[in-house]
From TrEMBL:
CDD domains: AdoMet_MTases (cd02440). It comes from the Bacteria. GO terms for molecular function: S-adenosylmethionine-dependent methyltransferase activity. Residues 53-149 form the Methyltransferase type domain. PANTHER family: METHYLTRANSFERASE, N6-ADENOSINE-METHYLTRANSFERASE TMT1A. This is Methyltransferase domain-containing protein. Keywords: Methyltransferase, Transferase. The lineage of its organism: Bacteria, Bacillati, Bacillota, Bacilli, Bacillales. One of its GO terms (biological process) is methylation. Pfam families: Methyltransf_11. The keyword Transit peptide does not apply. InterPro entries: Methyltransf_11, Methyltransf_Superfamily, SAM-dependent_MTases_sf.
Amino acid sequence: MHTYSEHLKINKNSWDAASERFFGRTALPDYGPYAPSENQLQLFGEIAGKRALEIGCGSGHSIQYMLNNGAAEVWGLDLSSKQIEAAKRVTGSNSQVRLFESPMEENPGLPDNYFDVAYSIYAIGWTLDLSQTLANIHRYLKKGGTFIFSWEHPIHSRVIFDNGSAQFNECYYEEIPALHKAWKPQPAIFHHRKLSTYINELVSSGFMVEKVIEEVEWPAAARGNETTWYSDLKANYFPATMIIKSKKL
Ligand SMILES: C[S@@+](CC[C@H](N)C(=O)[O-])C[C@H]1O[C@@H](n2cnc3c(N)ncnc32)[C@H](O)[C@@H]1O
């Protein structure tokens, strides 16, 4: 039986090893595979002059997007030292940016009631403790502040597409941390959660859910065939990505 800190170590090593492969791969204005983009959705509204915080900032490309749109400050945190190094390279020595190498489950010294907007692009679901992570984000935001995240739709990892048909290969209701079946090159711990769990945890952490997006947007070119994790074939049946916008009450 692994503990929280052992799981965190496994995921840090895994993300350090995967960092290069994910350089700029899932970043604003894109929300993730088969999702409509921020250009279409306009969930953030006016970014100019805002203080923004990114949870799981990866290679820093979304931070750069926020700066390009006039954000006053953008702070980012990420578990992986390699990802933070990449984010430093991408955002340069911009004095409006502050980066923290830290698990999202812990507070590396971020201020309370400071940010207008917090966001997370395909990272929040890596948390090993969703309620603690949401409690942290709630503290960092000002009252009325916005929290937007995208993540893999919880149905997506439960279904495989094989021989022309979609089949459930894992239980949708199961909510336990487990080794991710398709993750390479090093093992990673993935905690599956139901869509209702994300919504209910947001509500019990003091957020009001404003929008849930499950719409599918087709990329110009096919992404992959039935053997790839994200594919046109799967997207015919269920969303790859979900996006949730909420507000701190
Ligand atoms: C798919 S990437 C996000 C990509 C990011 N949007 C970008 O533009 O590069 C997921 C990120 O979550 C980070 N991560 C994983 N577990 C984490 C945790 N417990 N706390 C903080 N960050 C974590 C990984 O290091 C990785 O950078």
